[in-house]
Write a structure and sequence with these properties.
The complex is a heterodimer of chains A (about 350) and B (about 180). Chain A has about 350 residues and is mainly α. Chain A contains eleven helices and two strands; from the N terminus they run αααββαααααααα. In chain A, strands 1-2 form a two-stranded antiparallel ribbon. The radius of gyration of chain A is 21 Å and the shape is globular. Chain B has about 180 residues and is an alpha+beta fold. Chain B has a domain at about 60-170: 2-Layer Sandwich (Alpha-Beta Plaits). The longest helix of chain B is centred in the N-terminal third of the chain and has 16 residues, at about 25-40. The radius of gyration of chain B is 27 Å and the shape is elongated. Classes of the chains: A mainly alpha (about 350), B alpha+beta (about 180).
């Protein structure tokens, strides 16, 4: 690895880190605005024009609050919990191909921090670790509501990860590769996976909502039953990290969904462009897809009420997993037929 | 029983069909509804910048009127205090001295006139009882204070200034007093 490569990767990592945090911050603003619009309200409009400085005011508030650790809490786990959540939320963006190669200073720079040949496995692995942030935080708080939230989070994630994995396998079957870069390249132009795998996308989308703890699957933090769920005892920037990690993982999982099913940075008519123009347009197309996913996720949150826990388990185990398995078998048969193995 | 309002609905508890059981159509219908709300015009009035227009009959803070020559209309007859259901009004009367004709309209006047804004229910009966067109409720809002005694408004707050008349034409009763 030469020095220039090291510099460009470091710059990309730093840039991604800042963009993820910035996007997460403005997601909170957008979420509040969208909630207000759906409820016929105006939403935050005091801080700056149209309230666009609201996230900065919120962040400042978070930092200025008292950082409280309960007396009976497990101090170190209590501190580590939000850190794990934030870390796993941010690290997933390392394998995301954000656009086609861009040419800067005479070098062909890949807009992907690490092109793992098992990128999709990496994503699933990291997402699975993400539940530890919530579990450790809920356990360390030494509070029954936090513990309930943590238990709900872990059981929900385990149940939904199965269906999620099975629906993602169909994409791996179609593209023949576990690398996210290859998956995106196989959907060149308008050849998106959603046209071949609508059922898999549907399952993947629902399970993503569950993995993100977003409504209607926000049982780990439902205010009406568990006060705040796993982050009941958290305050100040530790709470901020939990909330931030939720929005960051929403951003990243929107990116993953766009990659797996909506062609990532591909857009129709992309062959007409080349070089840096293509790179910038592809980044814009990718950003637009991510934005649309975030919009839909928020739109769903402010439309549908929360599931009951038994309904959640019923949906996960008795509906989504069988449908995902049937979908996987059919896909496997079709792929085998096309390859001439049968 | 016979329906009195025709709004009675018969509740049914029949099992859901498959179409209803998969919930997706219902969820999509709900999302269409929320999307329509997203595009709707906001009805919010952003308070400090814009204020709601009061109805002409709005009953806010009282004013003690002066006549055209700047003389106080009130003669301390006490009818408003008698009419007040909340017993918010107290006053003391005094006789007009020589040389005070430019201050008070008639021979008797209120040397003090107090309304307790915490007791007042803004019913407007004082205004209705007043034979001299002296007390009126206006579209002004009683301000907030930190101390209770600051809500007892004396003549300093109630009587309108000569050069800063309070407009009550919207709610002026006509034909009560013959001579102006």
């Amino acid at each position: 690895m030469d020095t220039a490569m090291l510099i460009e990767k470091s710059a990309l990592v730093l840039l991604l880190f800042l963009i993820s945090l910035g996007v997460a911050a403005y997601q909170t603003y957008f979420e509040r605005k969208l909630a207000a619009w759906i409820q016929d309200r105006v939403g935050p409009d005091r801080a700056g024009p149209f309230g666009i400085l609201q996230p900065i005011a919120d962040g400042t508030k978070m930092f200025l609050k008292e950082d409280f650790i309960p007396a009976k809490a497990d101090k170190w786990l209590f501190i580590i919990g939000p850190g794990i959540s934030m870390f796993t939320a941010l690290i997933t963006s390392a394998v995301v191909p954000w656009g086609t190669n861009i040419n800067l200073f005479g070098r062909d720079i890949s807009l992907q921090v690490a092109d793992f040949n098992i990128g999709i496995l990496f994503v699933f692995g990291v997402v699975s670790i993400g539940v530890y942030g919530i579990m450790i935080g809920g356990w360390a708080s030494n509070n029954k509501y936090s513990l309930y939230g943590a238990i709900r989070a872990s059981s929900q994630m385990i149940s939904y990860e199965l269906a999620m994995g099975i629906s993602a396998i169909t994409i791996v079957m179609l593209s023949g590769s576990l690398s996210l870069n290859d998956i995106v390249k196989s959907q060149h132009g308008m050849n998106w996976n959603i046209f071949y795998q609508p059922v898999a996308f549907f399952i993947f989308f629902i399970t993503s909502l569950a993995e993100l703890n977003r409504a209607p699957f926000d049982l780990p933090e439902c205010e009406s039953e568990l006060i705040g769920g796993y982050h009941t005892e958290y305050s100040s920037m530790k709470l901020g990290l939990y909330l931030f990690s939720e929005y960051t993982s929403m951003f990243v999982s929107s990116a993953i969904m766009a990659i797996l099913f909506f062609g990532g940075y591909n857009f129709p008519g992309m062959d007409a462009f080349s070089g840096n123009t293509l790179a910038i347009l592809s980044i814009a197309a990718f950003a637009l897809k991510i934005f649309l996913f975030i919009f839909v996720i928020m739109w769903i949150r402010w439309t549908i009420p929360r599931f009951r826990f038994d309904q959640l388990m019923h949906l996960g185990w008795k509906v989504l997993i069988p449908v995902a398995i049937v979908n996987m078998l059919i896909t496997g048969l079709v792929v085998a037929w096309n390859q001439g193995w049968m | 029983m016979e329906s009195l309002t025709n709004r009675k609905k018969v509740v049914s508890d029949k099992p859901m069909t498959l179409w209803e059981k998969i919930y997706i159509p219902a969820i999509v219908a709900g999302m269409v509804t929320t999307f329509k709300h997203m595009l709707r015009r906001r009805k919010t009035i952003k308070y400090p910048e814009e204020t709601r227009v009061f109805a002409p009959v709005y009953r806010g803070q009282h004013v003690l009127k002066r006549d055209e020559q700047g003389r106080e209309n009130c003669t301390a007859c006490g009818l408003c205090a008698v009419a007040c259901p909340a017993e918010a009004i107290t006053m003391t009367s005094a006789e007009r001295q020589k040389g005070e004709e430019h201050l008070y309209r008639e021979e008797k006047y209120a040397s003090s006139y107090e309304i307790n804004m915490l007791r007042c229910i803004f019913c407007g009966l004082c205004e209705e009882a007043c034979p001299k067109e002296a007390v009126f409720l206006t579209d002004r809002i009683v301000t907030t204070e930190f101390e209770r005694d600051e809500f007892i408004y004396g003549k300093d707050k109630l009587v309108e200034a000569i050069d800063d008349r309070i407009d009550i034409t919207k709610r002026q009763f006509t034909g009560k007093r013959t001579e102006k």
